[in-house]
Amino acid sequence: MKSDLPLPDDWKRLVEAARDVRCHAYAPYSSYSVGAALRTADGRVFTGCNVENASYGLTICAERVAMCSAVAAGAPGPLVLCVSVTGPPTPCGSCRQFLNEFNSDLCIVLDDNTSDCPPECVVLKDLLPRAFS
Ligand code: THU
Q1: Beta partners for 84?
Q2: 35, 61, 125, 127: which could form a disulfide with 18 (CB 3.0–4.6 Å)?
Q3: Distance 40 CA to ligand 1 centre (A)
Q4: What is the pLDDT of residues 35-78, one digit of tens each?
């Protein structure tokens, strides 16, 4: 799915932050490291990486770690979230639903860290049509 959504002005800063935090991913079971950087309406940036667990089901995705960090800091709603992986990125269904709670118009920057092209930008409501809220 290609989107016409323009990249936010600070996309490079968000890509850099998502790539940096991805280095801290705890992913011994999948070996799939994910980084996320989220900008809230007050301009602050919150980051997260995936944190896996031996029980698998308790694994927490990078996007949700970043979102929880923003909530815990008392930040206002998220406006942009960048997710960075090696290969084609896309937030999982659980993360789409989780993020939808805070902003269905959230702009999501999809960074494949092996690509030389600028990342694609999509809006959450296009990834989660007819969301439950
Ligand atoms: N993962 C994320 O961090 N975000 C997503 O949107 C998709 C999946 C993580 C969870 C797990 O640690 C690994 O990627 C493989 O599923």
Answers
A1: 35, 111
A2: 35
A3: 22
A4: 999 999 999 999 999 999 999 999 999 999 999 999 999 999 99
Domain ranges across the chain: 11-127
SS3 45: strand
Residue-level length of the chain: 133
Catalytic residues: 63
- Which CATH entry fits the domain spanning 11-127: 2.10.70.10, 3.40.140.10, 2.130.10.10, 3.30.70.3270? 3.40.140.10
- Taking a C-beta distance cutoff of 8 angstroms, is the pair 106, 82 a contact? no
Q: Is 50 in the pocket of ligand 1 (CB under 6 A)?
A: yes
Tell me, using a 6 A CB cutoff, whether residue 30 lines ligand 1: yes
Question: pLDDT, tens digit, for every residue of 70-123?
Answer: 999 999 999 999 999 999 999 999 999 999 999 999 999 999 999 999 999 999
Instruction: Show the tokens assigned to 27.
Output: 């992913």
